[in-house]
Design a protein that fits this description.
alpha/beta; 8-stranded mixed sheet; 13 strands; elongated
Length: 391
């Protein structure tokens, strides 16, 4: 099961060790990740496997404790995840108590039939093999030790070029930061000119997409929070000024997996033409906003964008940017695209000059753009997505 997942890698500073002379051995150095050391238990009498499991846990920034026999009482109850070696599987009690820790059996391929039978008997949720399953195991450890709900992901895309999607995406992140949230703004459009220019962050030190092109699995906890440029409370991942190259889909998935756990909100500026990386980003979105100027040709162009997104984003809504040169109502545009109308964005005096100076954080708090952003952000926590017109 899940044997073809990417291999996890330990980040700098993570170390682990196992001393077979001690039944409850601590890693040689204390990991910097907060949390009790008993969150993850390894049950095995094999020192090689124990050392390997300690390294995998270290890649997640988590301490691990090792026992040669299945622990009982408080030691078992305090664990969120138990990793059981093949050698110790037969010693586990049958079944798994409701509300107890998750149990994962760790083996090397090929897996004998008796391992599957015993895993089922003890109520294990998974049998994973090494080394192929290391990446999945890092993810499972992180899920077990990070109970916080992942941050919502909001995707913004233009119905046509120059529709104002990048401005709305940046404004959403800036408005969220002003309200005390910890947003991450992802520039998923390599041909969009760079969100860093909107935020005046082109000279800020920190990671850009080319630095993360080889990322896989999930990044070390805190890697984005400490490595991305930060402007006015917004952590930004954009492009540099080198030759344009799209981000690999694996890198996008790794960044998103970390961003939703290292922030309160993730805003993604999506391209109109979806490559594999943008498809991964769109599929992660809780809410999608299609920004369309109130023009007939813009609405016609947006149909293709909507068609590409409607099967990937369940809650897809329309933002109409005015003023309409012919008086075209926003409701007519929404009806033509069969999307619920999320709001109208009226013209804002002085906005173009503010954006050209990279001072989007200086937006008037009572202006139409900031007002729309506040309302949209309040709706990201809505339990039920809006229903599409005609759907």
């Amino acid at each position: 099961m899940n044997d073809d997942l990417a291999t996890g890698r330990a980040g700098p500073g993570w170390t682990g060790g196992w001393r077979p002379s001690e039944p409850w051995a601590e890693p040689a150095e204390t990991a910097t990740r907060a949390g009790p050391a008993a969150d993850v238990l390894a049950v095995t009498g094999d020192p090689v496997l124990a050392e390997r499991l300690a390294g995998i846990a270290a890649a997640a920034g988590v301490l691990i404790r090792t026992s040669r026999a299945a622990p009982a009482g408080a030691a078992w109850a305090s664990a969120r995840l138990v990793l059981v070696g093949r050698d110790a599987l037969a010693d586990l009690p049958p079944g798994r108590a409701p509300g107890g820790p998750g149990v994962v059996v760790v083996a090397t391929a090929p897996v004998p039939q008796d391992v599957w039978r015993l895993a089922l008997a003890v109520g294990a949720e998974q049998v994973t093999t090494l080394p192929d399953g290391e990446g999945w195991l890092v993810e499972r450890i992180l899920d077990a030790t990070d109970p916080a709900a992942p941050a919502p992901v909001v995707g913004v895309v233009g119905g046509r070029g120059g529709g104002g999607a990048s401005v709305l995406a940046a404004a959403l992140a800036v408005t969220a930061a002003a309200s005390g949230r910890r947003p991450v703004l992802l520039d998923a459009d390599p041909l969009g000119g760079g969100l860093d220019l909107l935020l005046g962050a082109e000279r800020e030190p920190g990671l850009r997409w080319p630095d993360l092109a080889t990322a896989r699995g999930r990044l070390r906890p805190g890697h984005l929070a400490s490595g991305l440029p930060c402007v006015d409370g917004v952590r930004l991942l954009s492009w540099d000024r080198s030759e344009v190259a799209d981000a690999p889909a694996d890198a996008m998935a790794a960044v998103l997996s970390s961003a939703v756990r290292d922030s309160d909100l993730v805003v993604v500026d999506l391209p109109r033409a979806l490559g594999s990386a943008a498809e991964a980003a769109a599929s992660a979105c809780r809410l999608g906003l299609v920004v369309v100027p109130a023009e007939v040709r813009a609405a016609a162009a947006a149909r293709r964008v909507v068609a590409a997104l409607e099967h990937r984003i369940d809650d897809l809504r329309l933002v109409v940017r005015g003023p309409a040169p012919t008086g075209l109502p926003a409701e007519v545009v929404a009806d033509a695209l069969r999307l619920p109308l999320a709001g109208e964005l009226r013209a804002e005096p002085g906005l173009a000059a503010v954006l050209d100076r990279g001072e989007i954080a200086a937006l008037r708090t009572r202006g139409p753009l900031a007002a729309l952003c506040r309302r949209l952000l309040a709706e990201t926590a809505a339990p039920e997505p809006a229903r599409r017109a005609g759907g």
